Amino acid sequence: MDQREMFFTPQGVQSDIRRTRHVKEIPLYAITIIAGFFGIWYLLHQLASETNLLEDLKKLLEESGANSSPGIAVVIGIILFILSIVGGIGALVVFLITYLVMLYKVYADQMSYSIRVSENNYPEIYAKVLEYSYLLGWRKPPEVYVQQMNGQLNAFTCWIPGRVFIQLNAEIVDIAYMEHKDFDTIFFVMAHEFGHAYLHHVQLYYTFWNTFVNFIPVIGPYVLMPLLSRAREYSADRVAQALTGGKNQIECMMLLAAGRHAYKYTNVYDYMAWVDKRRFSGLERFARFMVNMLADHPIMPYRTAAILDPYRRSGKLL
Ligand SMILES: [Zn+2]
Domain total for the chain? Predict the structure, then answer.
């Protein structure tokens, strides 16, 4: 058994993955949880000011004579406390149900419009699904679906209770069965999606806590969440590298930039030399900085640079 074969064991891959989560992902995740509480406070504050809730409560207390009778004030206080607890739990339950409805809609979409990868449909891809599941120590492989998305080169992972599923857009699957017969690039894309699932990026218990950060105007949806998302993308790329040994990792990046036909005719080193920041003026670099800051995936030069240097556990976030 050579060194490379030894590496591709569940123990080897999983110990490699332990060192691959982006170094800023967990701190950013913690920040978004804290920001999430601030988001809830902001939401309640807006709700109170828009509905005159506090004014109405004050009026109610005055009318009930609570000011002159401490006993009535205590009773009203207890009732309000119980009502706020019940209201809070109710709001949480409604939020959870809405969240799950959204997730099940994504799964229903797979059941309605996709082809499930199986022994008979895309068997080469199915074999990799089993291999990656084995390497990651999963007893239940994720369901992988193929769906045409009118030219969009993309893939995603999603979760519903008891099930992880992955969608590979047919436009990506084409590269394995059309002119290039390139399976390894698809496998890298798929391994990246396995990475999201392995690092719990899609499971409710991970995503729930930072969802509320979106309630904070501007900063939440346009700064904090994209920042965390970019860190997760770097982490998932590192998992893909551990699962695939980095095979066709650059082709994968070139595919995303140049599309499923021309990507085979690109030279990554020429590309990286051109995007080197020293070639651009300050204003041009600032414009690119803004594009990256608002993006939920790191821009291509940063992502490619991190892939070329996989053991930094990093990647440029800003
Ligand atoms: Zn991703």
Answer: 1
